[in-house]
Design goal:
Oligomer: single chain
Main location: membrane
Order of helices and strands: HEEEEEEEEEEEHHHHEEHHHHHHH
GO molecular function, one term: L-isoleucine transmembrane transporter activity
Number of strands: 13
Radius of gyration: 24 Å
CATH architecture of the largest domain: Orthogonal Bundle
Helix content: 40-55%
Subcellular location: Cell membrane
CATH class of the largest domain: Mainly Alpha
Structural class: alpha+beta
Membrane topology: Multi-pass membrane protein
Keywords: Amino-acid transport, Cell inner membrane, Cell membrane, Membrane, Signal, Transmembrane, Transmembrane helix, Transport
Number of domains: 2
CATH topology of the largest domain: ABC transporter involved in vitamin B12 uptake, BtuC
Length: 451
């Protein structure tokens, strides 16, 4: 028990040092020639069964203060346009210069808005197809190809949501607390992983800077994700230890504790804005990849790997809850805290473990979501989705949170067959309202008598 506390205190010390030095760290991967926007253009020839580079395509990059520059793809289909400084830029592809019979897969994404941060190059993608683009390979909005693609996207989003929702559900089950700050744990994992991916351990321990990675300089995204997950678990332990354990011992009501989580959420969110600034960013690894076709579905390699890892991790969580002593204790406390305590279970130790693992899973969820884009307020943006998943599945049920997350992910993405994609998250609010009216205990929850 004491060794575990010692380890957590050590992790907390590292996290605190990282926060102290984060604003002072300088980029380690700056380009000598200055930042640039770059990419490559190619399309698949079904007859040759190979990718053909699109040479001679003209792209125009424009930014603030009237900046404008053009670039042309070379024989390998690659282009690079240098920009004067960090900031937002618009990249427009001249469709008249595309090879005959080739078009943009998504014409609505031209021009493409992007942002350069920390003096680093920024990659952009313009997927090309033979024939007419813009319909996802089908002539109808309800084509089988489009439905299959949206289903795959829904499963991906549902798996990522599940890792965040399980932690939130377990915290509610063991403490009765509705934790609005859980969203910031998702963002924390995303941002700390970004930090370690670019700055490495040298960002925390300065004298390591002259050493090669992973000690001096950015580390591989996998290693950075592990560090981000550890930082997430450490932050969860710290929040419980310094705020909510004393509140429980002092007899503070659950309503008052919930208000505390709202204040903590605002504090953490704007603290991360102050440290990381407001622009969207990308991890140094796997920033942009071309999608691979699997039948009617197109997914990038990073998405397929992340989805596979999510399934393995969620299965591991299920086995942990079913097979291990601590997992059984967690389920016992969630089911009946007083009875669990009377049988000799150390309830406070169980709650501490739930906070650590719940926060670590939320942080890992942030890492997977960050494979697309890293944002300082991302957790807040998906908070409604997480709550909808937990309520639909059943508050306090880990398996319910998983089921609810998959349903929410699928319904939200498939709803774009009927509504604009920009308002698809509104569907989560509808799911939440219907679940509370029709089955307030959730799909896998248990009805309880009140009073």
């Amino acid at each position: 028990m004491y060794s575990g506390r010692t380890i957590l205190k050590g992790l907390l010390a590292i996290m605190t040092a990282a926060l102290t030095l984060l604003g002072l760290a300088s980029p380690t991967l700056a380009q000598d020639s200055g930042p640039a926007i770059f990419g490559s253009l190619d399309y698949e020839d079904p007859e040759l069964e190979e990718d053909i580079p699109a040479a001679g395509v003209v792209l125009t990059v424009s930014g603030a203060d009237g900046f404008e520059a053009t670039g042309t793809t070379d024989d390998a289909g690659e282009f690079r346009v240098e920009v004067p400084a960090d900031g937002a830029y618009s990249v427009e592809l001249d469709i008249e210069t595309l090879p005959d019979g080739v078009s943009l897969r998504n014409p609505d994404n031209n021009p493409l808005e992007t942002e350069v941060n920390d003096g680093r190059d920024r990659r952009v993608l313009f997927p090309l197809v033979l024939g007419e683009g813009g319909d996802d390979g089908g002539s109808s909005t309800f084509s089988g190809r489009r439905i299959a693609q949206l289903t795959a996207e829904g499963l991906k989003q549902g798996l990522y949501l599940a890792m965040a929702a399980i932690g939130l559900s377990l915290i509610f089950g063991t403490t009765g607390l509705t934790n609005f700050a859980h969203a910031e744990l998702v963002t924390w994992g995303m941002l700390t992983t970004y930090f370690f991916n670019f700055y490495g351990l040298a960002g925390v321990i300065g004298f390591l800077a002259p050493l090669p990675p992973p000690f001096g300089g950015g580390v591989n995204l996998v290693f950075a994700a592990v560090l981000g997950m550890i930082c997430g678990g450490a932050l969860g332990w710290f929040i419980n230890r310094t705020m909510f354990r004393p509140a429980r011992r002092a007899g503070v009501s659950l309503i008052a504790q919930m208000v505390m989580t709202i204040g903590l959420s605002i504090l953490l969110r704007y603290f991360m804005l102050y440290i990381f600034r407001g622009g969207p960013r990308s991890f140094g690894d796997f920033a942009a990849q071309r999608a691979k076709s699997i039948g009617p579905i197109e997914l990038t390699a990073k998405d397929m790997i992340a989805m596979g890892l999510s399934v393995v991790i969620l299965l591991g969580v299920g086995l942990y809850l079913q097979m291990t002593r601590m997992g059984k204790a967690m389920r016992a406390v969630a089911d009946n805290r007083e009875l669990a305590e009377s049988t000799g279970i150390d309830v406070e130790k169980v709650i501490s473990q739930v906070w650590v693992w719940g926060a670590a899973l939320a942080a890992l969820s942030g890492v997977f979501f960050g494979l697309d884009q890293v944002k300082w307020d991302f957790g807040f943006r998906i908070l409604l989705l997480v709550f909808a998943a937990v309520v639909l599945g059943g508050l306090g049920s880990a398996y319910g949170a998983l089921l609810g997350s998959l349903i929410v992910g699928l319904v939200i993405n498939l709803s774009t067959l009927f509504i604009d994609a920009e308002v698809k998250n509104m569907v989560a609010l509808v799911i939440l309202a219907v679940a509370l009216m029709v089955r307030p205990q959730g799909l896998l929850g248990r009805a309880e008598r009140i009073g």
